[in-house]
Amino acid sequence: MYEGTFPHKRYQKTLEFLRDNVPAPATILDLGVRNPFVDFMEKEGYTVSNTSGEDLDIDTKAVQTDTVEVLTAFEIFEHLIAPFNVLRDCKADKLVASIPLKLWFSPAYRSKTDPWDRHYHEFEDWQFDWLLEKAGWKIIARDKWTHPIKKIGFRPLLRFFTPRYYIVYAERIKSN
Questions:
Q1: Does a structural domain hold residue 2?
Q2: What's the CA gap between 57 and 81, in Å, rounded?
Q3: Which of 9, 109, 157, 172 has the most CB atoms lying inside 10 A of its own CB?
Q4: Which distant-in-sequence residues (6+ apart) come within 8 Å of 39 by Cβ?
Q5: Has residue 58 been placed in a domain?
Q6: Domain presence at residue 3
Q7: CA 89, CA 156: separation in Å to the nearest integer?
Q8: In the sheet where 70-74 sits, what is the strand order?
Q9: pTM
Q10: Long-range Cβ contacts of 56-59 (<8 Å, 24+ apart)
């Protein structure tokens, strides 16, 4: 449908994963302020609202709404000090979340110009799985993909073979 129109490989992979695991129509609360990927989700038939930039480590009220079916978090949890709180407090029964994986050959991301744009966590896949499990989620599907860059060198070469992104579809574990 959008072949050749995605600005990033991860947009295409993320939308395919979302479509495969949570077909439209569905109501989504997307963590973070509105971003270009929301347009792709809406064109696909999803109804999307976003959080408004509040500090989700401190204030989780935005995710405590029961008017959405799905919580999405695309490259958000690595920026939070306490992602457990958001995962535990949200009322949605479905979750689609992606994270950049920790790479042994590259330091954690930290913007040189924006003091807020940094990764507090860069997870290994098993750490993210454990976080979700501890917060009351069961992973139903998962995928990983690489993120090659057009540069010459040892680290760019490793990026052709080493998965950079990890995405999961999880459902809330119902307590009896």
A1: no
A2: 6
A3: 172
A4: none
A5: yes
A6: no
A7: 39
A8: 47-50, 27-30, 70-74, 94-100, 163-172, 137-146
A9: 0.88
A10: 56/31, 56/80, 56/85, 56/86, 57/81, 57/82, 57/85
Please report, for residues 117, 132, 134, the alpha-carbon distance to residue 127 in angstroms, rounded to integers and kept in the order given: 22, 9, 11
Q: Domain with 53 in it: what CATH number?
A: 3.40.50.150
Place of tokens 């999880």: 170
Any bridge partners for residue 30, and if so which? 50, 72
Residue 87 in contact with residue 135, Cβ under 8 Å?
Answer: yes
Amino acid at 75: E
Choose among 106, 123, 119: nearest CA to 159: 106
Q: Kindly give the confidence (pLDDT) of every residue in the chain, 176 residues in length, as a single tens digit, with 9 standing for 90 and above.
A: 555 566 678 899 999 999 999 999 999 999 999 999 999 999 999 999 999 999 999 999 999 999 999 999 999 999 899 999 999 999 999 999 999 987 655 656 667 787 667 768 889 999 999 999 999 999 999 999 887 667 777 565 666 768 888 999 999 998 64
Number of domains, the chain:
1
Look up the domain containing 32 and give its range.
9-172
Specify the residue for token string 């204030």.
59
User: Which token pair is 64?
Assistant: 């405590």
Q: Residue 122 is encoded by which pair of tokens? A: 């860069």
